[in-house]
Give the backbone structure.
Amino acid sequence: MSVANAAATAAFIAPKPRASPSRARDRFRIRALRVIRGPLSAASALPIRFACLLVLCLLASFAPLPLVAAGAAPAAPQLHPRATSLTGAPQGPFVRNAAGAIWGFVPTGAVVSTDEGRTWETRPFLDAARFVSRPERAAHRTRTGVLVHAFLNDKERAFKWDDARGGPQEGCRLPVYLTRSTDDGATWSTPQLIQDGWCGAVRQIVELPTGRLVLISQLAQAHPARHVTLTHVSDDAGATWRAGEPIDLGAAGNYSTALKGIRGSTHGGAIEGTALVRTGGDVKLYLRTPLGGFFESTSRDGLKWTAPIPSPIEASDSPGMLARLASGRVVLVWNRFRDPVALTGRREQLSLAVSENEGVTWTIPHVIADHRTPAGAREGQHWISYPYLFEPSPGVLWISTMQGPLRIALRETDVRAPAPDAAPPRVRVLCLGDSITRGARPGVLAPATFPARVQAALRAAGLAVDVHNSGIGAERTDLALARLDRDVISQRPDIVTVMYGTNDSWVDTGKTASRLAPEVFTANLRTLVQRLRAAGSAVILMTPPRFAEENRRNGLDEDPNLRLAAYVAQIRTVARELDVPLVDHFAAWETAQQAGRRLQSWTTDGCHPNPDGHADLAPRIAAALTPLVRTATSHP
């Protein structure tokens, strides 16, 4: 199928933003949202019902059925409703040369399509006696037109691993080679050795604004047995390379400290990274770990990296793929657990999310492929993982997997809006806030944050709900308002929790006043509630937790709780005046402290909750959400 045909098949009209009657109560809003996800005029009930019925009928008439590959067995993956199969396409990565041909790569060299993927021609260029490229590959076309291809040489593969003796043994090898073409693919250089030792995967090459290439690789290390991420950089379009500093979680990244239920011995560490060159020129790296989510690291030059820390993105011990689209938006494709509490379905679901702000926050993920393992079957036979993403034309996405294999096309517009409702529908809850909401930080993994805990609690109670984390570090209410349409309202959440005040009230060193005046903070909070309600979302306001005993003083050498208490009082006032449910963490932590609890034990630094602190926040939030979620669930 051509890309043009695939795009035409996948095209659809995104729903418009919703509106709600100005004085409707929150529960009525949720019921209305479940009737129709489109704008309604202020009319009588009968015309509204008739309009809803008409639109629903039209949608049912035109709704496309899920597609699977031609001739696929009944157990083929269930695809996104607007996905189309790329029949006969190879696995990524792909690059387009100057002549417009699309290049993919195979064990003997390349396959090339000159008709937008309808047909493929084999172009072997590797010496088969010396080189066989494994499917873990990377490719890139530089801005100067050089084609670069990195691969693992299966001809030299020698797996010698002994956990009892520290992991990789002498002679454990799967080396990294790289070949390049300076004439648009007509000829390729003899592969050069980039890295010896055991490398489990190379998956991506990115290019910095300076023209420097950065190859993301990894290397097995012993004592303790694990893998470290290594980057290699080239300043001459891939002719020569040098290694950067290793990114190493040490024993903390090994399976001995992994989430309960994750088992393994040879894949521990921070590995199989995917990189994004951000508009500021730095590189953001997401690393696979067995700890329930990606770790992230950044670099200005591709050689020296910040210490890896937990990201807020839950992931299932599988690699992801970041890509910047022609629109400037960023896409992440990756695996999540089907059940993040039971840790089941590790690689059965492939998800996709979009970022409008350089990967700071993400849209609510779409499940773009789902291959549920039948009872009694081996899960590995149903994996769809190790994704590659290619944009053959603006707004058209090719997604392929090494394990699967999956070959589909989607439009960018298919995945920017919220995913089509599942059956039964899931209630969408979005958590808006600062770094306390974001949660993930050194000592706090993504599954330990309160949004993840709340989702687990609500699902354990039998509720069909997705809880999405949209927290940003250092954010205030004015910054939240600036991104409200882009990051929150565009996702059409049913319920939004809002927690601010910690940064708004803070006094910086050398200043004499809070970052935002109390009256500005209060006005912003009212506006947040009003705009969310006008967009059709129910709102829950939350007070932030108190600072603990050993938190640093503010810029006036005050206990920061003194100012925060005044802002908390304003949150309570707005909740009362606007009839918004309130979750009062500040009062709960104050009561706990008065009863003898040392709040420091609930934080990482006197301010940000640690896993125990998040465990304290979550039940209060779940209790406030439960009646609203039940209302939404019982009134589809």
